[in-house]
Records
---
Amino acid sequence: MDHTTTHSGIQALDEVLQGIRSGDNVVWQVDCLEDYRYFAEPFAEAAIANHLRLVYLRFASHPCVLAPRPGLETIELNPSLGFDSFTREVHRLIEGHGPGAMYVFDNLSALVVEWATDELLANFFQITCPFLFELNTIAYFALTRGQHAHSAVARIRDTTQILVDVYQAKGRMHIHPIKVWDRYSPQMFLPHLVAGESWLPLSHSSEAVEVLTSAHPTPLIETTRPLAPWESVYQKLVHYREHPSGLDETDPEQMALKQELGRMLIGHHPIFNQLADRYFTLDDLFAIRNRLIGAGRIGGKAAGMLLARRILLTEKKKNGVNLTERLEDHDSFYIGSDVFFTFLVHNDLFRLRLHLTCNSATSDEEFKEIEDRFLAGRFPATIEEQFRAMLDYYGQAPIIVRSSSLLEDSFGNAFAGKYRSIFCANQGNPETRLAEFMKAVKLVYASALNPDALCYRSRRGLGESDEQMAILVQRVSGMPYRQYFFPTLAGVAFSRNLYAWNDRIDTRQGIIRLVFGLGTRAVERVGSDYPRMVAISHPNLRPEVGAMVAKYSQRQVDLLDLKTNRFDSRFLSDILVDNHYPNLRLFVSVMHDHYPYDPVSGKVEGITNQWVLTFNNLIHQTDFVRVMGEILVTLEEAYGQPVDIEFTAFVGSDERVRINLVQCRPLFLPGSMEDVSMPTSLEPHQILFRAHRMICGGFVEQIRYILYIDPQRYHRLSSEAKKSLGRLVGQINRHPAIQGNKIMMMGPGRWGTSNIALGVNVSYADIDNASVLVELALEEAGHVPEVSYGTHFFNDLVEGQVIYLPVYPDDTASEFQVKFFKTAPNIFLELLPHAGEYESILRLIDVPKTTGGAFAQVVADPQLNDAICFLDKDVATTF
Amino acid sequence: MLEMNPFTIAQRQLDAAAERLGLDQATHDLLRWPQQELRVTLPVQMDDGKVQIFHAYRIQYNTARGPAKGGLRWHPEETIDTVRALAAWMTWKTAVVDIPLGGGKGGVTCNPKSMSEAEKQRLARAYIRAIAWTISVSKDVPAPDVYTTPQIMAWMMDEYETMVGHHHPGVITGKPIPLGGSEGRGDATARGGVYVTREAAKQLNIDLRGKTMAIQGFGNAGQYAALLGSELLGLKLVAASDSRGGIYNAKGIDPKQVVDYKLKSGSLHGFPGAESITNEELLELDVTVLFPSALENVITAANAGRIKCKISCELANGPMTPEADDILHQNNVFVLPDFLANAGGVTVSYFEQVQNTYNFYWPLEEIHQRLDEKMTRGFHGVYQMYLREKVNMRQAAYLVSVARVAEACKLRGWV
């Protein structure tokens, strides 16, 4: 690279440094802004005089370094949006200005006030500086001396081309070049007195001693006056806390410090903060900080979990249930969000991420390569040491490494399943366990770049938001059983029940999706497995009767295999070789002649193949459901809106259930919960169908297209054909003719399931243009009334505001106009002429064309549990 | 087009048989209608304290050959005409295997999916209180059917015994074994089907050992058909399917392994060592014996011409449309019609009733032996009619059963 020498505006400085070169980043370590301005001002003037592009990046609250003038472009930036956004914005600016520009930055120390840690400051510099270098620019930076961690300054020193210490000694300014890359003179790195036309080095020892001892009274102490709130706020709070009178909750300053610590750990969401301020004590915050690896925030998932626990412990007494006695303790660790960026920066991955965030069209193969790059990355030694300490603490207990990004699980963004969570069985020697753990962390980090997550962020308008990946490390609940490790019970629960399979169920009370073993089985749509759905208002009811109970039950158990050291799924009958599993009678029923019988004694009869997971005795004979109900009510009250939680549970020898709350987040319902009015004067032939079961609220009018997949014909397709059909759905979803019009998609079984025999094989991206998604539950065709409620797919629908309705055409109350859907003219081939063989299965109906001008309309009232799809005009139709 | 009333269908089937048998008008008319119908209205207290009213039925269609016998359905769409039709079919079914019982059926219009166990128990007891005067081991014996379970039978028996003040377990069958349920009920339907398949093969001069079988529908009956077809007849299972698709291996599939897999995993999907096959492909396989064991109307005029099996043993109810029946008959596919082929279930129910009455319980082997005798006799009765009248086996079965019931009515001097 050709590095042209440029005039710094000060001849003497050019002489000391042997000139400033294009590509140089120059960091001035100063005590005050005036000292920085002393150098920046001549630099700016020289650039203007030489007709070079000069850009001043203004982001600090201190006075302007450069006053406005002709030839100077001043760009204001807002660092309070967060490290991620700020860095991205700076990069965009630099890229936009291209090679050869001259930059003056505000004092970088101001960034620390916003971002809390020196680590992020160093990260910013380490990412930005090489980019400037590549573009042959010259950039001036300032850093306030003595206010930053030595490690951060060291990283800046290692990255920059020029680092100059500036200080006043004996009333006179001195400069002391610490680093001048690729240049050398015998006296270059001595302090120089800034005076006269030529700045002389302090080469005499007595002069040097005098100046340096005055400028650096404590040269080896890291930080004399820490500026980063991460340290300063904490230190102040420690000081107050250790005071004999303790923390004074009436002192505004102390409370402000507590709040600030809360913000640094939790984030800035106003509703979240309100809850955090109300429920978290200083001890809670200290407890978080004491278990935090690295620095930064703990992310939405960790914050939600901690907040919910604290709410339950505070509001502990509810309707006779003492939640304190029912809540298990936790000993989680957190990997601060700063570690994510440090990892990216250390391993040259930040710009890759920057590129991908802007351009989300990554294929699965490309993502695999990205994962490999992450896996090859290394952590800083200090972080690795902390990992070791944490693993020593857990010993060989299994742990789970869960993504906990800043956006995740906060209000309005569930990010369900977008980022990874990885179990570590945590077996083997310490080195093996550390390697496995770090691999898990890297894969979680890489998942921030997975195409689904980037696409999700972009669709939600979050592409530019500050997104940092913190990690929550939790002990896996449970106990070893044979060679396996799993919790007895796990699942998800919702404070509102939209899966009401009959009118008696009160939707205002919650629902539990309960499994035996790890809860992964409850949040994913898996094969032919069915979690037990427990309606809190009527726990004794279930949507199946008699012999069908076994069919719609959980067959496989997710667990950690301690022998193979990995996560696995096993059939229940392979795990339970005898009836000695503790409290087994609470979880299984015994099949005799294909009917389930609940065990009447502690000893469960029969052989393992006869046992089916019904949880009947748990539900009927313990207060599990009542406790869960109280937890949900308490959390919903505190949050001020519906919530969903993930939990594990175990039953003690006294048959008392204890709950471990592993996640809590605000629950968003599909469509809207606003009042809608149901149409009252429809002619029967206007009605296309009704739905009375699980209802999402909302109102969609002007539905022009209906995509109808014939359930019986679909059922007869080969597996290959079913897969192809899923892709065709995606093609219609993205077809230009459909864009700009509303489309309702209707098809059999469980959409989005991994088992194509159970329902239409699509990913969310295949249906994201649909306004309404209808799952047709036809038992005749083998498609079962198990819905996606509570799964990640469901959450995608929620956030995409797709109205989701399960319809039971066999139920006469559904008024399902099968003839309309089966005989209306099919325009499918007009859009996809190559797919003729699917014409009889995939029907695309142009509603106004078919009906002579009427569009379809859907009104769903979540309060009444009633939804209707109808033609919006009473047109003469043969259907 | 409106779906045909099931009772109208049942009457038409009878009409065809009556015409062929040359039944006199009075007997024909008598058999066209239920002998006794009871409609009751049941107030039941729900868990929330409110009282809900349920409508229920019990129909004794014909008791000329013995006490009525038939299931009790709890279904939200239940109508009296469905119950009538099913009661008629029970009459023919008990007659075709020549057990000394008539036909009956009961129903409660309710949605068991919205009822707790306590509510179901109260409804079961209320039903028995309302119909107790018309049931007993010598009058009418209900059994489980759609959405009713052995547990519900146990509550009903208990209520009845409380009312009459003594033990009377035979008033209900399908009870849990500790309360007088019979051994051998679990595999009774499939076992009965396997016995009649054996007899059919003998008549057709087919040595079944090493021959192939395919099973469409792998629920209770299908699973036992796989096990017993192999164990008792030496058939080789080559294909099986359930609602999620099928599996196929021309070299054979171990029935024990596949049943274990189904019980474990809930489906056949992914069974190792077999390739995937659709339900439709399975029906059209070139096998010796096909057991349709799942749904109604899977063999229709559309696919009947492609059915290649030698014997079709209908363990499911109504797997074939009448048009398909004719096509298979023309193509020399030997059909063992549903109400003969799956009569093993009601036969063991009858055994339960007998054992309850004697208060003496047979060992499993004895039940199997007696079931074999009944099914074998039942088959031969129908087969003789088939040869004599040159009709298809379904029509022959109707002729046998209607003739038996008509004869009993006549002997009693009713007509």
Note: The CA atoms of residues 57 and 80 of chain B lie 7 Å apart.
---
Amino acid sequence: MVKIEHGRLQEHPIVDFKRGKEVTIYFNDQPVKAYEGETVAAALYAAGVRVFSRSFRWHRPRGFFCAIGKCSACMMEVDGIPNVRTCKVYVRDGMQVRTQSGLPDAEKDVFSILDDVIDKVFPHGSHYSKFTTSKKVREFMVKRMRKFTGFGNPPRAVFQGRAELEEIETDVLVVGGGPGGMSAAINAGKYGAKVLLVDENPFLGGQLVKQTHRFFGSAKERAGTRGIRIAGILEEELMGIENVEVRKETRVFGIYNGEAGAYQRLNDDEGKLLRIRAKKIVVATGAYERTLIFENNDLPGVYGAGGVQTLMNVYGIKPGNMGLIVGSGNVGLILTYQLMQAGVNVAAIVEAMPRIGGYFVHAAKVRRLGVPIYVRHTILKAKGRKSVEGAVIAKLDDRWQPIPGTEKEIKCDFICVAVGLSPTHELLYQAGCEMKFVPELGGIVPLRSKFNETSVKGLYVAGDVAGIEEATAAIMEGRIAGIHVAVTLGYGGEEAKKELEEAVKEIEEFRAGPFGERIVNGLKKCTLEDEVIS
Amino acid sequence: MSLGYLERGYLEKEELPPFPSEERLKKKTVAYIECPQPIPCSPCFESCPANAIEMKNINDPPKVDYEKCTGCMKCIRVCPGLAIFMLRLRDDGMGEVTLQYEFLPWLKKGDRVKLYNRKGEEVGEGVVNWVLPPERNDNTSLVRVEVPAELIFEVRAVRPVG
């Protein structure tokens, strides 16, 4: 029904894929067709490559997983530089890409015998007691084993480009150009604060760029509008504010007493080291996907749900023919619907909880199209040698244990893990924020005031990094952080203070339902004492 | 509160919102909203020009006042949950169900479609007798299918025949 060419969707009900010029990259010396604007990982996936790397110890095959530079499963040698995350690098004509740590390559790696045979001869942990009989044997083996360690070869090429230092002074630095970050920048900027927004990607919008569905919320938060369009609307609003500067492909690597260090990539040969002095910093770095423990969960074909959305909705690449979705939260349910829109079948959704985790209406959408939802079920294992060829699921008892005899084999060629996200909090730790593990918010989150200021004065958070919620809440949080930043810097006067109060009230209303209850409970555990707006 | 529908992913008869009267269904098209769970979402309420949708707050599930509803279809155009269906009973004994459709190939007037219920079971065949083309509603097409009158509370999805 949906036309496919070279692994790429030629048509889609929602997205119009605009592909760049056709180029050729070389993968382990073999030419691979790609289009400008695609990442190396996406182009290789479209060409049918499934084994992207080999694991560190047992040389197990590893494939595509997160697609946003968090998981490292796609690391390869690109133009002589080892350990490049290929999901973050865009194709260029003539690019040389090689897999690492496999002989001759990751696909046909001879060392994979370690996983098949030697694993049985030397069970896990036995390397602590083997080869210790004599000093000579030990020294010999230590040398051999050390040769095995590490990812990739030392660089064959060295970065030849120039990097200049630029010093920047600004009122506000916003780290991250997703919904939370853009909203913070807009709301601080509109009251007159000088804002610099940086994002590591060459585009703004964060993960909105793959949200092809219409959003929930109220019309004020653009409910009823597709996520992909909201990214554009926010960007346009942002660009319309004169005192806001945006730098893309800029990565903040540290925050030191109100100063941030960042690297801005200008082109293949040039970059800039930025020293940013900001009176206030808003961190809106989002989140990354969790995985789940089950047998063979590292097999190529077991993907993060968001990774599949990126592949399919951003690059128009078909992830497979038959998927199994693990997790019935909104991400899992929405992804199921999106897969069907791209002409991909979904065998089933499994959910360990006794009830569907996401919104009922999202479940109803796919249920009426014939996708079974198994609650109180879990995945036991993925089957296959170099890629997923099926899965085994089973029913759970009241103590979350698989019930013997209820195993069911599911035919599928990929598995999407949609079991939630964890905040990307590294920068906050590094900056010295007080952090706390709050399960309701998805993991380790910073303590914050009701205006989203952390325990480090002048450092704010917005969006998923402050606790896993969703894009509408991120926009609302960004608004609160942005206005509070403006107010405390002396911008906006009474009008801003009034809007701030409204914004706080609106998010409270938004979270007043049963879905917000969990968030509210989580927030109670990490809210700093109330602050009074002076 | 029963969470039955949250185990199944579809509504059983007793969980459905009240039916509009046969008289009302015969008069003109009416919006029927299958959105029982409190979620923070309100575009239907905000889009309704007739004030026919009642919501106490953003988390309150919408309730339609069938007498106020004019069948203007503003709500079904924006519902992100694909939870709104426009229903009508015709004088000739047939019924009509209008639903949101976001799949390729796009359906056109006159196309024959397979009809599915809430569980995804095929319940018959019908004919498309009107569409709002996708380009006029940000790629959510509205499709009106002619179905046997007794199926207007059953048919919730369609697929092209063949």
Note: The interface with chain A takes residues 3, 5-11, 34-43, 46-47, 57-59, 78-83, 102-106, 116-120, 134, 138-140, 156-157 of chain B (CB under 8 Å).
